[in-house]
Amino acid sequence: MDTILLLLLSVTFTASFASFIISFIMVITVILTYKFGINPDNISVMIASSLGDLITFVVMNENTLDVLKFGWFALFAAMLISNCAGIVFHRSIQSFPDITSLQLVVNGAAGNLVGVQISRLSTELHRNAKTGELPCSILEYLIFTRALLGEGKEAQASRILLIIGLCGHSLFISLILVYTSSSMLFLSFIVSYLVAIFLQITLLLYFGQFTVHLLWKFKFDPDNYSIPLLTSFGDLLGTVFLAVAFKIAIQFHGP
Questions:
Q1: How far is CA 97 from CA 181, 187, 254, in A?
Q2: Which of 40, 115, 178, 192 is the most buried (most CB within 10 A)?
Q3: Which residue range(s) make up the domain with 44?
Q4: In the prediction, which pLDDT does 198 show?
Q5: What's the rounded mean pLDDT across residues 121-144?
């Protein structure tokens, strides 16, 4: 009984102390970003989601130190891309206020879909190839038709994910039509919206195929590097395409 109580006390103290440290760092981060005129949402979320894992890497397992040493590139690159997406989003709100109700759904769904494909490709490489070696030339992964129109398992999975994304967003738009009276849901916008979704997911799946194999070629683990890069890139694509969809729809429908 004493051992159980000691274990519970240790776990509670550790969790509380870790939460205190992370909360303190987050408060300092938010204050500093406000001081320098930067939107804290574009920085604090990345730090909060990764700080605990990074500390664990340092303390628990020396085999993961390479992630701590070299994984910063992906995080900083993702942060820069997310900042670009934030700038586009901030400017788009001024012209299209309704974009705020769709941006999270558009970017979140695409990030999840490309994450699934990246995990599949990475697992396949870990199972069937040596680190740094590819089944074919890296240039073949630049071929667009190979990613989506080919006969291999990669292309089949990409097509399935693309269909899932389009069906999910079609259902989302349908629910909005049924349960709300939003003035933005006219035909030209619905068509523009679905085209934007198609382009976003298609480009993410294409770049995902190339990025995973390029990282593997240079002996980087795609699971650790490609997901932050491509999800942030998906945020940028989604925000840009969504703003363009609003612009095109308004041109056809009128203000």
A1: 16, 19, 16
A2: 192
A3: 1-60
A4: 92
A5: 81
